[in-house]
Write a structure and sequence with these properties.
Layout: E1 16-22, E2 25-31, H1 43-55, E3 62-66, H2 72-80, E4 84-89, H3 92-104, E5 108-113, E6 124-129, H4 137-146, E7 151-162, H5 167-174, E8 178-186, E9 189-196
Parallel strand pairs: 3-4, 3-6, 4-5, 6-7
Antiparallel strand pairs: 1-2, 7-9, 8-9
Helix pairs in contact: 1-2
């Protein structure tokens, strides 16, 4: 399997579109080979988006989507919360798709090629991630740990992780530096919110 957190210039392109309905909003996303969950919206990302909608009623937020893939989470939240999103990934194809999807869905956003936070400046109200579990625990924990430096004073880190992929040990790890809340559990997926302690 070609990992979605790498770049393969030789991977054949097979562009498809995914229609995603969320509350009263309908989105159309371009997707392709070499990106995460390329054919359909994955359960974890959908659960993360809906849990955020249930718990946040602010607009004009600064949002960072780390490991954005084709842009599902960040673009959906930018539209629903009438906010600006910065989306980062190391996968060039994912970033190209995310840029096209920003235009397609008429949201305020931009993309940046970045390994975790290497090319990220500024602070954010929300940092969201469906972390690349297959990249390994070290990489996932780097995404989670270093978020603390990029959160505004009352900013929040939101993530989705499956129980079988180490949700409980991840929660304990997060508690070393954050105030942690489990916001939702469904079908083995945990939605976790963390704030700087």
């Amino acid at each position: 399997m070609e990992h979605y957190f790498t770049n393969n210039e030789n991977l054949k392109s097979e562009l498809i579109t995914i229609v995603y309905k969320c509350d009263d909003n309908e989105f159309t996303f371009f997707s392709d080979n070499g990106v995460f969950s390329k054919k359909r919206v994955d359960f974890g990302s959908n659960l993360l988006i809906h849990t955020l909608i249930k718990n946040i009623n602010k607009t004009n937020l600064d949002i960072l989507d780390v490991g954005c893939g084709y842009g599902l989470i960040g673009i959906s939240l930018a539209k629903i919360f009438d906010s600006h999103v910065l989306m980062s990934d190391i996968n060039k194809r994912a970033l190209h798709l995310a840029e096209s999807n920003i235009t397609k869905n008429k949201v305020k956003g931009q993309v940046v090629e970045s390994d975790t936070y290497d090319n990220i400046t500024g602070t954010f109200d929300l940092i969201v991630t469906n972390p690349p579990i297959r990249a390994g625990k070290k990489q996932v924990y780097k995404i989670l740990d270093d978020a603390s430096k990029h959160l505004k004073k009352d900013g929040e880190l939101w993530l989705v992780i499956r129980k079988e992929q180490g949700a409980k040990s991840t929660i304990e790890h997060l508690k070393e530096r954050y105030q942690v809340n489990i916001m939702e559990k469904s079908k083995g997926f945990y939605i976790i919110m963390a704030k700087n302690a």
